[in-house]
């Protein structure tokens, strides 16, 4: 995408299209069309969305929270969304496919989608979102030591959030009369998100379902903290698998608060094992040479090969 100088007629047409949008939307649209400056896109998108909102919903949009739900909190139904999309297509000179928009639920979803769209990158449309109830059902960690409140799994990454409430018991002494969220707990939260990825992701490197009671922290390297976090801050977590090869999984992770770099872990290493009720492995019976598969199941229901434990069982 390359910018072109707009004629006065084109500017007037754009002005007419955006005349009901808040101040700054038209100016951002002109800058984007002439320079393709991606920093103008969020201004345009928020301006266009606000143009279609009822007056009582506009302050909620202006709060700047990325978790604002388009339908539940802003009242944007499918018809209104269609109008928003049509105006954005005309303003930005790009097109959207209905399938691309299907999983957009929050302002954060819209912003991340638009950022990827403008850069020509593929947006993770297959991301699955998990509420706290599902997270708690999947994770071995539980309250009061569960530091994930939302989580999403997409190909090759997991993201999550945790709101520092100020009621966490450890904040009473860290520090007295000056609560600061411990950096060690931030890394713990990243580790928990990595655990969640192992349990919930459909990753081709995971040959079977991972046993939730088999995952343990092994090591962590390249940890840096850039910001003090206090009650009220929302930690946005992200982990990406660097390598998964049973019985070890390596991740890299990062935390931001309001888009500001907060913590980084270059390597988080977890040890894990698969569930033991997996389908038995089948091998050729080399002794008989008849090409038939020989599988032996021992008394506890675990698969053995030729009367011996398989390599997977020995780990």
The CATH superfamily of the largest domain is identified as Hotdog Thioesterase
Helix/strand/pairing category: alpha+beta
- Side by side, the strands of the main sheet go 1-2-3-5-6-7-4
Order of helices and strands: HHHHHHHEHEEHEEEEEEEH
CATH architecture descriptor of the largest domain = Roll
**End-to-end C-alpha gap:** 52 Å
Helical content class: 25-40%
Number of helices: 10
Beta-strand segment tally: 10
Radius of gyration: 25 Å
Runs with pLDDT <50, length 5+? Answer: 278-315
- CATH fold annotation of the largest domain: Thiol Ester Dehydrase, Chain A
User: So what's the CATH class of the largest domain?
Assistant: Alpha Beta
Q: Approximately what portion of the residues adopt beta-strand conformation? A: 15-25%
What profile does the largest beta sheet have? 7 strands, antiparallel
| Overall mean confidence score, pLDDT | 85
Kindly give the count of domains. Answer: 3
Shape: elongated
Task: Summarize the entry for a quick read.
This protein is of the alpha+beta class and 315 residues long. It is built from ten helices and ten strands.
Describe the protein's architecture and organization.
The protein has ten helices and ten strands. With 315 residues, it is an alpha+beta fold. The chain has three domains: 112 residues, ACP-like (Non-ribosomal Peptide Synthetase Peptidyl Carrier Protein, Chain A, Orthogonal Bundle), CATH 1.10.1200; 144 residues, Thiol Ester Dehydrase, Chain A, CATH 3.10.129.10; 39 residues, no CATH class. A hairpin with a 2-residue loop joins strand 9 and strand 10. The longest helix is centred in the middle third of the chain and has 18 residues.
């Amino acid at each position: 995408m390359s910018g072109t100088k707009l004629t006065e007629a084109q500017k007037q047409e754009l002005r007419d299209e955006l005349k009901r949008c808040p101040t700054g939307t038209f100016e951002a649209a002109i800058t984007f069309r002439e320079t393709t400056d991606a920093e103008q896109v969020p201004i345009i998108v928020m301006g266009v969305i606000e143009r279609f909102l009822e007056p009582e919903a506009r302050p909620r949009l202006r709060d700047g929270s990325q978790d604002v739900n388009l339908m539940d909190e802003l009242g944007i139904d499918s018809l209104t969304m269609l109008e928003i999309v049509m105006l954005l297509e005309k303003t930005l000179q790009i097109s959207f496919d209905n399938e691309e928009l299907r999983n957009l639920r929050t302002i954060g979803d819209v912003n991340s989608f638009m950022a990827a769209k403008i850069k020509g990158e593929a947006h993770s449309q297959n991301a699955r979102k998990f509420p706290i109830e599902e997270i708690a059902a999947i994770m071995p960690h539980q309250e009061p030591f569960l530091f994930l409140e939302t989580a999403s799994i997409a190909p090759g990454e997991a993201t999550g959030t945790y709101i520092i409430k100020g009621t966490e018991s450890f904040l009473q002494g860290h520090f007295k009369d000056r609560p600061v969220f411990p950096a060690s707990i931030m890394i713990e939260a990243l580790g928990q998100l990595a655990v969640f990825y192992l349990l919930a992701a459909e990753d081709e490197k995971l040959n079977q379902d991972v046993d939730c009671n088999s995952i343990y922290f092994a090591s962590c390297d390249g940890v840096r903290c850039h910001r003090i976090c206090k009650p009220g801050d929302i930690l946005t977590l992200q982990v990406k698998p660097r390598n998964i090869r049973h019985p070890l999984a390596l991740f890299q992770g990062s935390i931001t608060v309001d888009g500001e770099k907060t913590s980084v872990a270059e390597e988080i290493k977890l040890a894990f094992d698969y569930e033991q009720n997996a389908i038995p492995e089948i091998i050729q019976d080399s002794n008989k040479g008849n090409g038939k598969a020989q599988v032996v199941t021992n008394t506890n229901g675990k698969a053995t090969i030729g009367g011996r434990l398989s390599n997977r069982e020995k780990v």
